[in-house]
Amino acid sequence: MLRSHDININKTAKYYTLGKLSDEIKTVWFVFHGYGQLAKEFINEFLVLENKATLIIAPEALNKFYLRGFSGKIGTTWMTKDNRENEIIDYSNFIESIFKKELNNIDINKIKINVLGFSQGAHTCVRWLDRFNHKINNLFLWGASFPHDCNYNNSYWESIKAQIIFGKDDRFLTKEIIEKEKKYLISQNIKFSFLNFEGKHEISKEVLLKLN
User: Which residues, in sequence order, are bridge partners of residue 196?
Assistant: First the structure.
């Protein structure tokens, strides 16, 4: 008889940073890349925010694959539909370990914490926050909205206000999808606002500079 078994293992994971942890740090950004991307490339989108008072942290998804064929450029994905619950637990624990490692010696009540998820990374960061309920200042979901598999009817999510950012020509967020998402967010009592810009499914440096 065929049976499936799960086993916990140790795994070496990776993340990247811009900025250096010091007493000067006033703002920490956790930024989450999308499907097929690498954190070391994605974090470069945030160079415009780099200064002595800012630390930017970009976790990299645990699952790697060749984007085309069997060699060449590599991409990553946070999860697939296969074994999805364990994938969510694994990447949430991975992100949490980064949070603890980087901010363990900081009084987080004295700094601003911004969380930004792009595309698939938006669902990733929301699920992580849903599990660990960290107090953050801003939640930016870029090119995506909230996943529909979390329970938002609790005091934690009542305290979170999110901004959903998307390009007017984003092929993944059409007007029809936006309207459906808006109805869903209202039904879940999620506090949100929309910000759109002239562009596609991409990070806009001009918009980034306006976020706070």
Answer: 166
Look at the pTM and tell me if it is higher than 0.90: yes
Three-state DSSP at 197 gives strand
Domains and their CATH numbers in the chain = 15-208 (3.40.50.1820)
Element (H, E) at 161: strand 161-167
Evaluate whether 16 touches 45 at the Cβ level (below 8 Å): no
pLDDT (tens place) for every residue of the chain, 212 residues total: 999 999 998 999 999 999 988 889 999 999 999 999 999 999 999 999 999 999 999 999 999 999 998 999 999 999 999 999 999 999 999 999 999 999 988 888 899 999 999 999 999 999 999 999 999 999 999 999 999 999 999 999 999 999 999 999 999 998 899 999 999 999 999 999 999 999 999 999 999 999 97
Whether the Cβ atoms of residue 43 and residue 18 lie closer than 8 Å to each other: yes
